[in-house]
Amino acid sequence: EEFLVEISGTKVTITCPLTEDNIKWDGPGKIEDDNRKYILEDHDSSPTTLSCSAGSEKHELYLNARVCANCEELDALTITGIIAADILITLGVLILVYYFSKNRKGRASTSPAPRPRGQKTQRPPPVPNPDYEPIRKGQREVYAGLESRGF
Length: 151
Description:
Blueprint (H helix, E strand, L loop, with lengths): L3 E5 L2 E5 L8 E3 L3 E2 L5 E4 L7 E7 L2 E7 L12 H29 L47
């Protein structure tokens, strides 16, 4: 047999597992009309020890319940629905981003076109500038008149 504990806001209701009519409670709360239920109004979440007894039989309960005035209890179905809706919205955003980014590939852009990526091959040497042609062996006569002058 177990205690039945119900929490609603800051009100905690405990039902004793004993079925007799002359149940005696020991704790800081008040007893409801039918004597089996014990009510803690404005419980402050501090741990409390309660006991209910009838004749020689006694049951004790260590109550460590967290309560708050503005809390809302959610069932498993609500939480599952929230998570499923979040996943569906996220997938919808991903599909939209994919769709719009796919269409942008075909449009002309102001940025320079990327170089085609192929196999890395060696670049050919740059075309020589005829104004600065290097001196080759056998052609020194062209530059023979360019001797340094003594200043």
